[in-house]
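If your schedule permits, I should be very grateful for your opinion on a structural question. I have a record of one protein: its chain in single-letter code and its fold written as discrete structure tokens. Would you kindly read the sequence against the tokens and tell me how you understand this chain to fold? Thank you for your consideration; the sequence and its tokens are set out here.


***
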Amino acid sequence: MGNSNLQSGGQPLILASSSKVRARLLEAAGLAFIVEPPGLDEHAMRQAVSGTGALSPQDVAEVLARAKAEAVSELARDAFVIGADQVLALGDRILSKPESMEAGRGELLDLSGKSHTLHSAVALARNGSTAWAYSETSTLTMRALSPQFIGRYLAAAGEEVLSSVGAYQLEGLGIQLFEKIDGDYFSILGLPLLPLLDALRREGAIES
């Protein structure tokens, strides 16, 4: 990872995520960091916190972002650790990452012609506890898609869509699925980048 002139040489920065997109966003912003996925059973955690219905989708995203950041922060107490999570809600229903191409096809058929909300949360942890957390909600409207188009799209996009809620990646072919997008681009990609950079400056992790 290339070091930049805008980063203070103090505490290391860790991204507690295996998301390639989040890593690319931080890299493009000139940050030097290491990637350390949290090793939590994300699927089980997501079911536990969203199953009760007591938490809103936005709260679910923030709870998971905090948990990821804190899990890695427990092991690397001197570092600033960034955790992030995204929850997609269609009405009251929370959709998870599709487990197969067939499940992805089902999700896209459900989302077709409708608006859904995407809740993107980010947390910054230090010494095992969250120092700062933030979440943002975007509304995305998918155009009416024929089953034939969905089939062609999934064949062209490939297995990569299984790593994204809603079976789409906006920075790639997924953009062709939409007619309207209302929200912050970085947040939709999975990382509310401007608020995060602001928090990193306030904490002294990067230069202001």
User: Anything to note?
Assistant: Residues 101 and 159 are 7 Å apart (CA to CA). The first helix runs from residue 20 to 28. The first strand starts at residue 13 and ends at 15. DSSP finds seven helices and seven strands in the chain.
